[in-house]
Amino acid sequence: MIAMNFVICLPKTLGKFDSIWVVVDGLSKSAHFIPVRIDYNAEQLAKVYVKEMVKLHGVPLCIISDRGTQFTSKFWRKLHDELVHNSLLVQASINRQTGSQRGLFKY
User: Fold this and answer.
1) Whole-angstrom Cα distance, residue 46 to residue 83?
2) 44 half-sphere exposure, CB direction, 13 A CA radius
3) Whole-angstrom distance, CA of residue 94 vs CA of residue 79
4) Are 23 and 4 in contact (CB under 8 A)?
5) What are the strands of the beta sheet with 2-7, ordered from one edge?
6) CATH architecture under which domain 2-98 falls
7) Buried b (16+ CB within 10 A) or exposed e, 41-75
8) How do residues 17-45 score in pLDDT, each as one tens digit?
9) Residues whose CB falls within 8 Å of the CB of residue 59, separated by 6 or more in sequence, listed in order
10) pTM (predicted TM-score)
């Protein structure tokens, strides 16, 4: 389970970030503070989440957010899309490295 919230309307950094995305992992009780921009959409946030959080804590089972159900639903969909995309890239890379001629999916 993760809880996420945003600290917005901060002065812009050199990287043009004006907000901080606060993500708290419920299991480890660790908090992560990720610089973002106020205009990031669910797809951009999902990419940032995969890059910054999945490698540390894995895929969340539950998301708690005060941004509303519409945002959370979009974020879940985009997170899933990003994870599937990354999984296919990894599998294709493994197939190239091993010289495998098999398809990406095994049945």
Assistant:
1) 9
2) 9
3) 22
4) yes
5) 31-36, 19-25, 2-7, 63-65
6) 2-Layer Sandwich (3.30)
7) ebeebbbbbbeebbeebeebeebeeeeeeeebebb
8) 999 999 998 888 899 999 999 999 988 99
9) 79, 83
10) 0.71
